## 1
Amino acid sequence: MPQDKPAAKKPAAPRRQARGERRIAQLLEAAAGVFCRNGYAAASTNSIAKEAGVSPGTLYQFFPNKEAIAMELGGHLLQRAREMHGQAFLPENLQKPLPELLDAVLDPVIAFCCENPAFWALMHGSGVPGISQGHEALMADLLTRVQGVLRTFCPDSTPAELDLVAHMILGIFKSSLDLILATEGAERAAYVAELKTVLLRYLEPAFTATPTTPATH
Amino acid sequence: MPQDKPAAKKPAAPRRQARGERRIAQLLEAAAGVFCRNGYAAASTNSIAKEAGVSPGTLYQFFPNKEAIAMELGGHLLQRAREMHGQAFLPENLQKPLPELLDAVLDPVIAFCCENPAFWALMHGSGVPGISQGHEALMADLLTRVQGVLRTFCPDSTPAELDLVAHMILGIFKSSLDLILATEGAERAAYVAELKTVLLRYLEPAFTATPTTPATH
Amino acid sequence: MPQDKPAAKKPAAPRRQARGERRIAQLLEAAAGVFCRNGYAAASTNSIAKEAGVSPGTLYQFFPNKEAIAMELGGHLLQRAREMHGQAFLPENLQKPLPELLDAVLDPVIAFCCENPAFWALMHGSGVPGISQGHEALMADLLTRVQGVLRTFCPDSTPAELDLVAHMILGIFKSSLDLILATEGAERAAYVAELKTVLLRYLEPAFTATPTTPATH
Amino acid sequence: MPQDKPAAKKPAAPRRQARGERRIAQLLEAAAGVFCRNGYAAASTNSIAKEAGVSPGTLYQFFPNKEAIAMELGGHLLQRAREMHGQAFLPENLQKPLPELLDAVLDPVIAFCCENPAFWALMHGSGVPGISQGHEALMADLLTRVQGVLRTFCPDSTPAELDLVAHMILGIFKSSLDLILATEGAERAAYVAELKTVLLRYLEPAFTATPTTPATH
DNA sequence: TATGAATGAGTGTTCATTCAT
DNA sequence: TATGAATGAACACTCATTCAT
């Protein structure tokens, strides 16, 4: 994909685009704030423009419509989330015992969500098809990765079983994330720990049953 | 004045209201459908009226405003949900061993939510103060009940611990419900079973620790 | 006009119509109240029906539309007002000296307006063409009568002068009536007296200049 | 920062607003017309927008709601009316003999009302609280001023008498204004003259009784 | 006849989007 | 490029009027 990012060294007109890039970042930041506070549906493009300190017309110079803003924002975050998952699910992590594995996988993802609350706001019911698709793609990706991990420990499980368990894990993770994002400090840390406890206890039987003898539940 | 309102068999006036009652039911059903599909905010009163096959004016003959529709719908369901919880948490259930306890508590609640998908749609971010309050009250009630159960098994836990665990349980339940409601038939049953597995494994250590005489609070 | 009023002695079906007459009176009374409180424009037919204790459909069985209610009400009152004027402007009154003439003419009209506040409410800006016409006809009638009185005292005045003075008199009367209707008891009486003072002083020069030598202002 | 807002000659930004200012004037003019023709209540914002030749949305870019339009219109006019009263009731005017005093006070007020017919339309039953308050404040102010004038000429009157007479004067003025605004040219002039005659004759007795040293309140 | 449910055009207002400058 | 005025379809809601019973 050679035309994906202009390689940072084209001498022609990058100065012109610099302002545009800044504007876009400005607008996306404003959008993140407004989406976070009001949710996607209740966020008006005019209010995003105002938050960004520009006129509505300017906003539409960079984004064809409201959905595109959410897409761009969500896309960025999804991209970064995907990268994070790539790191979290490195083979070296997957060979650790379960508790360490959970730490290695969960901690960066939780940190990312805490630092980018708009991500979570957008993922939850933006109603934007593109976002939902992206979210679902991300979820599918995560699902695949989780299934991969599970498979290494329970190689005899049927795909349906793996899918089921992976969905449950993600569900537990998401609901815990709600609690985590709604709290701070020690309480937040307690929820993080509790999430790990839940997953540990849920998965322990399968994992400790020796990699050879997968648990059939 | 014995003929004022005594004849328990609908003497004269209610005949007129019969059509109205039917309309109200019709409108609530239509609203449930639209709320389910689009969420509360994106549901327009005109679309609800159209779905019910009546004109917007008719809708407003029975409901003073959009919020009232949600309140009526959500109120009924909240009420029934509360009743359900009352039955699910009967003392006789609470003395069963954990697996049976989970069955006794979860099954009716899950069944209720499956039969009333609009309930779940309304509870999630309707933005209607009355509904949100009702939902929070319901959640607080559930939380208290769950904590009560936990306390009988883990009488030494601190209130903060009980609160934490109760929140996690509810979170797990809610996220699983999303999966349950999104599926059908065997898959749904599998999710239900898996939810119980998760909770069982999560709570087993605490419950088996002290099968002592349950505290009566 | 033989079919105008059924002559009170037709044996056929007057019983049937009796209820209708009562309904009409009921509705008109309710309308008078609502018009008085809210004005014509802000009065809804439904609220009139409710005030009368009947359904909207019933109202429309007797009146083709909202305007007709105002017309009927205004018509009745206009009719009675006209009759009152007939009595107030009896020749015997017109020959009295000015103070007594003012008493004779003003007192019954003021009394009528105090007893029928809806009359005044309707006359002022109902916006109903028919009412406005009736009101204007009444005013024209009054104007003519006042001009007639003026002419007997100032026979040399031009029609334009008479018209001018008559309009002023009516204007003064109407604005005073607002004050009179807005007050009660002694204060109201004071306003009545003051109105007479104003008119007395305004008209005295013309009236006392002997009937033969009309004042030229 | 000397270039922040010093260059008293419209540096850059206000060019943009020029069109807006014109639109506001246009909309206010349209509103004045519609209010005049139909009254405030019956004037729809859409009809105002249409009269101004713009879309409803444009109207709402400059006014938050219908009431604000009336407030803007009425507020300006009330302000100017108050200023006019200030000039009309200058001490130098109040020491003139009654006929000149009436000219000095009435002429500018009448002229103002003739030039701004919307003022009168709005003052009469707009139902807008802000306007009604402003109108009542204006009337109270006028009342006080009139009472002040009266007191200088009739220092022995009781407050109740002054109030009564002042109310009558205002009432006469208002009803005459209706006639004045409903006519034009010579007829209008005749009504103006007649109004002065009425007030002159009404007040003469009191004023000629004691042309003593005016009280300074 | 009387009811009250039903209608639908209309109201004030919002907001994603476009356009003239 | 950036502005902010302009658009118009849509929304929540009202009310004079009609209709089925």
Note: Residues 20 and 61 of chain C are 10 Å apart (CA to CA).
## 2
Amino acid sequence: MALSSTDKIRQKKQKFLAREQQIIETALDLLLLSGVEKVTVAEIARRAGIGKGTVYKHFESKNQILMRIMLDYERCTAENLRKGIEAVESGNPGAAVKAYFESRLANPALDRLVQQLEIKLEYEADVAPQMEELLEIRRSSIAKLNSLVERQISRGVLEDVPPHFHYLACWALAQGAVDVCFNRGFSEDFGDKEKLLKFITSIGVTMGNRGQFRGSLTDL
Amino acid sequence: MALSSTDKIRQKKQKFLAREQQIIETALDLLLLSGVEKVTVAEIARRAGIGKGTVYKHFESKNQILMRIMLDYERCTAENLRKGIEAVESGNPGAAVKAYFESRLANPALDRLVQQLEIKLEYEADVAPQMEELLEIRRSSIAKLNSLVERQISRGVLEDVPPHFHYLACWALAQGAVDVCFNRGFSEDFGDKEKLLKFITSIGVTMGNRGQFRGSLTDL
Amino acid sequence: MALSSTDKIRQKKQKFLAREQQIIETALDLLLLSGVEKVTVAEIARRAGIGKGTVYKHFESKNQILMRIMLDYERCTAENLRKGIEAVESGNPGAAVKAYFESRLANPALDRLVQQLEIKLEYEADVAPQMEELLEIRRSSIAKLNSLVERQISRGVLEDVPPHFHYLACWALAQGAVDVCFNRGFSEDFGDKEKLLKFITSIGVTMGNRGQFRGSLTDL
Amino acid sequence: MALSSTDKIRQKKQKFLAREQQIIETALDLLLLSGVEKVTVAEIARRAGIGKGTVYKHFESKNQILMRIMLDYERCTAENLRKGIEAVESGNPGAAVKAYFESRLANPALDRLVQQLEIKLEYEADVAPQMEELLEIRRSSIAKLNSLVERQISRGVLEDVPPHFHYLACWALAQGAVDVCFNRGFSEDFGDKEKLLKFITSIGVTMGNRGQFRGSLTDL
DNA sequence: TATGAATGAGGCTTCATTCAT
DNA sequence: AATGAATGAAGCCTCATTCAT
């Protein structure tokens, strides 16, 4: 039953990577629980059941952990969007918007967290390369969206405004929908969040369609 | 021309209040300039040209300063909304939504700052009473909106969904519109923010109107 | 007996400056006692009877404290050298060298400490401006020495080698003399350090004089 | 052609010793490159192409590595000095001093490094035995020097001062000459370090000779 | 009343050393 | 024997708040 040396090494690497994932998940849990500014490296380590030093074997800095969470999320969102765009091309016109909304509203707490992380990390020098990578992902998504929207405008499905108006409006609504879920005073008493988010998604799917505005866009 | 004792006292009070306002404004400037987590009490005092100790004569804690900024803003928004609702009652159906959007999008940077302050202060014990006050303002606005929306639903202007769906969707869009203005990668290359915000406002004004969804709401 | 407001302010400033001096002196004591790498900011603060934070009201970083000690010492040495050069010009040919040696050997422990500080701080970014200032002081001393030595060479007092040979040799001997005082194994058993340093100073004063080498310099 | 068991063991020992040497050399390279306080065990291991744990199979602690470098150097210097003293006894009076200077100035960077290591390790408990060994080497050299100098004094070659004055002065000059090579501000602009060191060596060879001081030693 | 020096808890990070594989 | 992941003590620095003047 002896494992070969290669196997042992592979096993070790697996364990190492598993621990990395564990750090990220612990960090994520804590971030969701206590808020971005309350989480410390010491606490992450304690909760993950490891030493502080171990964290730094996996990540160069605390910011790198946060950045990793952001990047993972951004990649996931971009992938979902990509699938949605594909579905549009297969003849399902609302699919992209729907996919985007569902991707972001599937876990609003996480989405909101990532929004906050972005604010925190925006100009932190030690994660600049990763931030650039993130922006690159977005730019790629934008490029795809632009051509998609342009086609839909030329087909008369969407209002003839600059393409980015459409997807930025969409993004705005999704962004805001997430906030709705958490803001005290407005939403805390409403138990039917699910339905609300569906309603908002419906708006997202139809907004910007030609004819919706009934003349209110003449001044654009 | 010596001032009477009463006058002197009044003058002093005026000066004291003026200084308080100055602290708030300086803090606001710095918050907008550097971000919520970068501003220190020392810097506020320095920029306001007063001593750090003086700041604590006016506010019990740093959080109280931030809270005050939030409250001022919330009151202003609520007041604008109130005027909008009045206008609706004077026969201008879209006025409330328009007023609300314009109020929040007039200074997106400030709006965004306040969103962040709310996250930061959400569960800080030392501003709990003021936070309650803020929530009270919101509840009051909500009550007004609820009856307004109910009337518009019964008149067939708006879709027949729970009233809060309408204003929360509206709030979400406004919230998101603000974020659009600042997020890197999505919006940095677009110079026509003005028009974009008008476009989003247009969506806000028409969204939720009956007939917009063309059957997509059957499952609510 | 009431002090005027101005007096009070002045008194406060004095106290503040006195504390700054106290920090430097405490730091110096500790550095001499325990070695450059053993002294911590916490320890300095504790020994000075103040809080850690207070240290950072006076100095931007730990390195700045060390740099200050270096600069103070360098200025003092440069001033002593300047006086020595003046004395040379008043007709006392060995005065400069003697002044230099006496200045540095007056407190060998301090001189040695400063040598070590220089190594530590050499390429630390946060004290680069002050390091430049220190080098400027040295350059100024060098310029004076150069012209002095050139005159003595042309008068036939010193060997005709590049001027900097003379003062660098001098500097080397002083530098080394300091080390002699502290190196275990060589000097620990000798109680007559005073006389030894005088002997070395004598060498310093006469070395490089014309005729000393008796032909051993022909290959230069 | 299978190797005998004894041969295999011998081969293994060879390899083990070679690795030890490699660690020392890698450490030395790094120390010269980055400075005593910047080198970590991890970096040494990485550069040597071995694991960190392996380093600790060869040395009990990081300090032991540094100590070893010192001891190697000290032994080398002592050996050179011994040869110089032999040459003196063969009728070459300046040979000892010359050998000593040449030994130390042959690689000033290394000499300087060792000076710094000595400061660092001076009172470190875990290398105390090795430090004692080093001091023993020095004492042995000193004993030889003492008798040599005494003979030269009695022959009228050297000034009649306590013997250790002579070799300590010599040591001081060598020590300082090394520093001259590296100190910024004094030496950075001079390209003719070679000649300078020869000049200083010349001084070393002649200093302390009878008649040099022309009466300036009367007060000793 | 206004001030700003003083405080110290608490955060991030480094690195020599250990030990299970 | 060789490895390198894990550890945690220890260091530097920040900043909201207090308090003597």
Note: Chain C has two domains: 7-59, 62-210.
